[in-house]
Model the fold of this input.
Amino acid sequence: MKALTLGLVLASTLILSACGGPRAFTRGEYGDPNEISMLDDKWNQNDMQLVAKKMIDSMEGWIDGRTIDKPVVILEMPRNKTTEHIDMQALYDHVKTALIQSGKFTFLDKAARREIAEEYEYQESGYVREDEAQGPGNQRGARYMMGGIITSTIQQVGNEKVVYYKATFELTDIATTEIVWTDHKEITKHFEKKSIGF
Amino acid sequence: MLRWTMIATLALVTAASAADLTRSEYGPAWALHAAKPGRTDGPEGSEYGKGGYGRFRGEGRFYIEGFLGSATVDSDDENGIGTSQTDLMAGLTAGYRVEDWLGFQLGYARIAEQNADFVSGGIRSSLGADPFNYYAGLDAEIYSPEAGARHFGIAPSIGAEIVLTDRIRAGLRFQRDIIFADESIDINRFAASLQFDF
Done:
C-alpha cells in the first residue's frame, strides 16, 4: 500500500510539474474554413467571408435583374479606414473569384499591367514566333470600376468591448461616373476580456 | 458498501443525463457538447449570436463538484494493532479553473458512520479527450476524526469523467489520504462525482 501511495504522489507531482513548463502550439487539426473561429477581437477570416458573401450575392442579384451582358469590371485600389491591418486583397480576391466563376462578370487584371507590357515588348523583340507573338491593341476596356471601403468603430468600457465594421462596396460606370450598384455589410462583435495565462 | 456506491454512481449519472435531456435539441445528452458551431456560409444574419468560444470554454470557470462513495480507514495504533473500517462518505469540492488544465479547489468531505471530517485545499490538473476528461489532484487537508486530535495530511487523487454537456460532468474518483500522525492512518476514498461548471 505504501508503494501505491508513493506512486500516486509521484505521478501527481510529475503531471503537475509537467503542466507548468513551457507551452507551444503542438496539437492541431484541420478545420472547416467556414466554421466560426473567433479567438481574439481582430478582423478575421470569418469577417472576410461574411462581407464577401454579402457582396457576391448582392452583385449577382443586381446583374440578374438587368440585361447587361457580362460587364467588364476592373478593381479599384482597396481602402481600409480601420485602425487595424486588413488584407483587402484577400477580400477582393474572394469576391472576384466567385463572380468570375458565376460567369456573369468579366474582370480585368489591373495589377499585371506592367508585367504584361514587358511581356509584349519581349514577344515583339524577335525572339518569339511571329504568328504567336502577342502585342498591344487587343486588351479589353473596363466599363465598370469596383471599389470598396471598410470602416470600424470600437467601444470599450472595463472588460466589455464592442467592435463594429462596415464594409461598403460599389460599382461605378466609368463612362458616366454613375454608381450603378452599391451595398454594405455591417458586422458587430461583442467581447469580454478574459485571462489567457496563469 | 460497494453496492451503495454503485447505486449512487448510477443515480448521479442518470440524474445528470435526465436533467440535460430536458434542454437538449440533439437527442443524447452528450451530443449537446458537440453542438454545431456557427458558420459563415448560411443565410444573411445567421451568424448572429455565434462565436468561436465553444471548445475553449474550459478556462476561467468556477466549478462545484459533489461526490458520494465509500471511505476505508486503515489505522494501526501504537501497539501495532490494526483496524479497518469502511463507511459511506460524501463531500463537496468548489474550485476555479484558471486554464483548461489547471484548477484550484477547496473541499469538504465527511465519513458518515465515523463522524470524521476532511477540509482540504489544493490543485487539480486535467487532461481532456472528448468526451472524457482525466485529472490528477493534490490537496493538503485537515483530518478531524470524532475521537482523537486533528491531523494534517496530503491527499493525491485521480479521476475520470464523461463530459455530458458544456457544464455537467459525471465520473469516478479515487483519493488516497496520507495522514501525518503518531499512529499510522491511511484512508482510501472511492466515489462517484457530479461536477457543474458555471
In short: Chain B touches chain A through 31 residues (CB under 8 Å). The radius of gyration of chain B is 20 Å. The longest strand of chain B covers residues 82-99. DSSP finds one helix and eight strands in chain B.
